[in-house]
Amino acid sequence: LLLLTSSQEVRAGDRLFPVSEDKVITSFVPRAPDWDVNAQIISVVQGVTQIGENDIVVLDIGSEDGIQEGLVLGIFQSGDKVEDRWGDQNRTGRVLVELPELRAGTVMVFRPFDRVSYALVMQATRPMHLLDTVKNP
Fold it and tell me: Rounded CA gap, 106 and 109, in Å?
């Protein structure tokens, strides 16, 4: 085999796969799921450390879990942990309280596979990262 073009680095030991002949869907009907979705961002296509609008992310949930093209989901981040200075005074040491999670953005699934899905970040209010939670908007 001869590699003619590449958009990213290629190293010895990387595997080659044939180009997919699957039909590409070019129009979507955005909709929220009518069941509880709980997933995480497990990768970002361009390999960056912070994720923003128009980035493509990989979710750890797929068509086996009911995910379909056009599903719109929210991205959430864990709240900060802060010291509770006014809580139980009988405890020794610091007492940390976790604040509620924050909504960081919105994604739309455009290509589900069996166990993972590609999604487009359509809106971002703060930088997102790997392992951020993705669930119902």
Answer: 10
Q: Are 75 and 98 in contact (CB under 8 A)?
A: no
Distances (CA, A) of 1 to 5, 15, 18, 19, 25: 12, 11, 12, 14, 30
Q: SS3 of 63, please? A: helix
Specify the fold of 38-135: Thrombin, subunit H (2.40.10)
Torsion angle of the four alpha carbons 60, 61, 64, 68, in this order, in degrees rounded to the nearest 10: -140
Q: Where are the domains of the chain?
A: 38-135
Which of 43, 2, 40, 34 lies closest to 131 in space, CA to CA? 40
Instruction: Decide if 51 contacts 57 (C-beta within 8 A).
Output: yes
Pairing verdict, β 72-77 and 102-112: antiparallel
- pTM of the predicted model, to two decimals? 0.77
Q: 109-130: per-residue pLDDT in tens?
A: 999 999 999 999 999 999 999 9
